[in-house]
Design brief:
The protein has 298 residues and is an alpha/beta fold. The protein is built from ten helices and eleven strands. Helix content is 39%, strand content 16%. The radius of gyration is 19 Å and the shape is globular. It starts with a strand and ends with a helix.
Length: 298
């Protein structure tokens, strides 16, 4: 299959590109800089200005949109919030416009999203039918999904990947390793908040699953069936590293360092369950957090 990917240089994009190419698919990377002769399968686009030649999508079996500034890259100042929104909505709108203008639209758009869609919900069990939250991250995810769903038609189905914390080589896990290795790791805030997570090989596994099943559409919670609270997550990570995990980070300290981002990413409780994937028959490759951490570190 010919698969067009935006955001291929990110944590998920790199892993997904490698996995898809190992399965014999041709991956066409959307890049902003001019394409050189040795760039491999790549095409130039300008999402900020809404520019993408619809011909790039001709013959593609799927488009995967992972484009967007990292939500954990710096404090959420008003300027950063604008960049977080614009980087997602502009790229998605550009892809949707190209899909609509294509003489032969790709049959599938897989668009990234996040379990942050639900907001801080305490002990409430959340599945794909649950209502969105009302904070910045929830509004961002809702609007991002709305932009992607504009591509839905008789010719194109849309799948929304509501991603939990990704356990892979980099990202959130990488930021946690140093304090834990120094013996300064531990729960954040009360430690009772639910921290949904997903192993990288289950992200690639779900994408393969979606590519192979034409009946799959709509939102999917990409969260492991193993539910853990923040304190348990810290204990498991400390156990894998053979380090103590009893140095708590008070909520006020997290907010002091990270601002509003601390409430959305660290202190929020999101008990998201992968009910849609369960109903579809997807079998998780790495449902155990300790195993996922070991794989990522190794």
């Amino acid at each position: 299959m010919r698969i067009v990917i935006s955001g291929s240089s990110g944590l998920i994009g790199r892993a997904l590109t490698t996995d898809l190419e190992s399965q014999g698919h041709q991956v066409v990377r959307l890049v902003r800089s001019p394409v050189s002769a040795n760039a491999g399968a790549a095409a130039t686009w300008d999402p900020a200005n809404g520019t993408l030649d619809p011909a790039v999508l001709e013959g593609a079996g799927a488009v995967i949109n992972l484009n967007g500034r990292s939500i954990a890259d710096g404090r959420w100042t008003p300027a950063v919030k604008t960049q977080l929104r614009d980087s997602r909505l502009a790229s998605t709108t550009t892809l949707v416009k190209a899909i609509s203008a294509s003489a032969s639209p790709p049959p599938l758009l897989i668009n990234a999203s996040a379990v942050g869609y639900y907001g801080d919900r305490g002990e409430e069990v959340l599945d794909e039918s649950s209502a969105p939250g009302s904070d910045f991250l929830a509004d961002l995810a809702r609007d991002w999904e709305g932009a992607a769903l504009a591509a839905a038609s008789d010719a194109t189905r849309v799948v929304l990947l509501r991603l939990a914390m990704v356990i892979g080589h980099g990202g959130a896990l990488e930021r946690m390793l140093l304090p834990f290795r120094l013996g300064a790791g531990g729960p954040i805030g009360s430690g009772r908040q639910w921290w949904p997570w997903i192993a990288m090989d289950d992200i690639t596994g779900v994408v393969r699953f979606v590519l192979d099943r034409q009946s799959v559409e709509g939102p999917l919670n990409l969260a492991s069936p193993q539910e853990v609270r923040c304190a348990e997550f810290a204990k498991i990570l400390g156990g894998v590293l053979n380090r103590p995990a009893f140095m708590p980070l008070p909520a006020f300290a997290a907010r002091l360092v990270m601002g509003e981002m601390a409430d959305a990413l660290l202190l929020a409780s999101i008990r998201a369950r992968p009910n849609a994937l369960h109903d579809l028959g997807y079998e998780f490759r790495t449902p155990d957090l300790a195993t996922a951490i070991r794989h990522a570190i190794d």
